[in-house]
Amino acid sequence: MNSLLNNYFGIIKKFLPDKPKGTAVGIDIGLNSCKLVEIKKENNEYELVSWATESSRKNGTAEAIKTLIAKLKKPPHTLYTAVFGKGTLIRYIDMPRMALDDMRNSFSIEADKYFPFSQDQIYTDCYILDGDKKSKQMAVMASAAKKEMIDQRTQLISSLGYQAEFIGLNPAALVNALNFSLEKEDEGKDEIVALLDIGESVSTFMIIANKSPRFTRDIFVGGTDFTKRISNTLGISLDEAEKLKCQPEKRVSEVRAACESTLMNIVQELRLSIDYFSTEKSKEVNKLLVTGGGSLLDGIIDVLGDNLEMEVASWNPLKALSVSPEINVDELNKKALQLGVAFGLALYEYD
Known about the structure:
Oligomer: single chain
Number of helices: 11
Order of helices and strands: HEEEEHEEHEEHEHEEEHHHEHEEHH
Structural class: alpha/beta
CATH superfamily of the largest domain: ATPase, nucleotide binding domain
């Protein structure tokens, strides 16, 4: 993988001795569902071995993960997962240039300058984003997550009989997946690209310059909000609304009208973020890539493009992967936009 992938960090990373070779499994644990991606690497080529999604609404998260793992041909030796949303933060900081270890020691003492949490409540980490050693200043990506969130996630994985070798943050996993795609497709490397992942309850917005993240924020609107609006406006069940959201058929105008106010909230947040970045960095965003389950809403790409007045495209995070012959490609394509985080997590196996 490229050097940037080696630069990405998680809140907790444990190195296990004599890690057996095999496939890598990333699991994205969402509000109402869990997503699994299994990949393997051979001769510098990556293949999608299997994937699955499972609702956690009825039986809970632990049972959903058990169901996903049971679908694998072989049980994984470890699981890669992440946390997201409230209780996590990523900051981009300019600091005097110093060695990474010195920076981490300094940062651990001064973390309260950058995060609205007391130091005894969070795990933190940071990394240098630019390699220009001639400059006296350096760009630093710093992250924090509440210890309660990390500890609960670790306990969950341990209760299933697995070791949580890596617990990271969803935004870092997404950029991991995006950089893989850009490298494989050999395009967009020098562009300033924005990425919007519309999840179930939280949408993650990032701006990436030269494959390096420079802006990250959470927008607390997601696909569930679209579903609720459709359900309430049209007087149908949430299950019916979920189906109609992705396949409105003859009710396109009704679905779009029901979701308009929620979608405009996202547009407003995106516009504020893009304007802030452009003013702060004196750089223009070239393109917006959209992914996540919420991006399956019919017509959303056109609405975002028209309102933001920029190029907007749907991003399939698995597009650059070869696919096992055992996988039904048609079924995969229906769900691929939901698998970016899980894929990005699985990639950490090969860093």
